[in-house]
Amino acid sequence: MTDAPPPDTSPYADAAPDPVAAMLKALDLADTGARTTEDIFTAPSQWMPQGRVFGGQVMAQSVLAATRTVEGDRLIHSMHGYFLRPGDVNEPITFSVDRIHDGRSFSTRRTQAFQKGVPILSMIASFQDDDPGLEHQAAMPEGIPQPEDLPSTREVLEQFDHPVARFWATARPFDLRHAPGHLYFGGGSERVAHQAVWLRALSPLPEDENLHRAALAYASDYSILEPILRRHGQSWATPGLKMASLDHAMWWHRPARVDEWLCYVQESPNAIGGRGLSMGRIFTREGVLVASVAQEGMVRIPQE
């Protein structure tokens, strides 16, 4: 029998004893009943140690806000969003959804997320009926270690007495396991612009395909810019590092559960001008391609 972990005395301990429950609470949008030419929803922000709203959270909320306005069985298949301003975790978020178009097979929505009267994210999303058609997919790369053979986020970070490390170890709703290795405190042994990250929610989610798609958008923002750091031998602990997501695009190809292991294969084809581009493919453990992702971010490291 192992010793029980010491009590968590961090600022978020009482607010989020169950990280997945905290995420689901943030994703439970309230319909205000207000109607102009748009549908209006509100949602809380999750606490973060640096005071800024996590980009994956506001993306997932925006996806669900748009989903609430789509009739029938149409599922989101793509979104393109721009992060306009940093969000404040102490403020709720208001979402306005513009019902741009409803066609025979597709629906298009624009969601804007507001705090203090100004937009922090603007997103356009498309939804589609389940239609037959041609089908193929890229193959999952071979040789990626299985998640059971890699250390969990908690195992890697709980030994470090730092607020951000403690939060990432215990309060994030997903477990992330890196191959070939994490970049939390070191740049890795090889300067390559690619990596794989296994991810899974820490506990089961409800049987709701829309929720799983939103949660996948949530998790897709965690590590997508890391191949840029890896290519240049940098890490999250690099002194003076400044990183921020600028835009995010995502395509959902097939259904998947985020409470089962998914492999997020990532690469960065370019970095220049204080910006880096990363692209990712998300596979099930059986090699089924469920989503593709692209993100450009600001990456600034002090010059010597």
UniProtKB/TrEMBL annotation:
Q: Membrane among the record's keywords? A: no
Q: Which Pfam families match?
A: 4HBT_3, Acyl_CoA_thio
Domain named Acyl-CoA thioesterase 2 C-terminal: residues: 182-298
Note whether Nucleotide-binding occurs among the keywords. Answer: no
InterPro entries registered for this protein in UniProt: Acyl-CoA_hotdog, Acyl_CoA_thio, HotDog_dom_sf, TesB_ACOT8-like_N, TesB_C
Q: Which GO terms describe its molecular function?
A: fatty acyl-CoA hydrolase activity
Q: Which domain of life is it from?
A: Bacteria
So what does this thing catalyse? a fatty acyl-CoA + H2O = a fatty acid + CoA + H(+)
Q: Which residues form the Acyl-CoA thioesterase-like N-terminal HotDog domain?
A: 44-128
Instruction: Enumerate the Gene Ontology biological process terms.
Output: acyl-CoA metabolic process; fatty acid catabolic process
Q: Which UniProt keywords apply?
A: Hydrolase, Lipid metabolism
Q: How does it assemble?
A: Homotetramer.
* Family, as annotated: Belongs to the C/M/P thioester hydrolase family.
**Name of the protein:** Acyl-CoA thioesterase 2
Organism whose genome encodes this protein: Microcella alkalica
Source lineage? Bacteria, Bacillati, Actinomycetota, Actinomycetes, Micrococcales
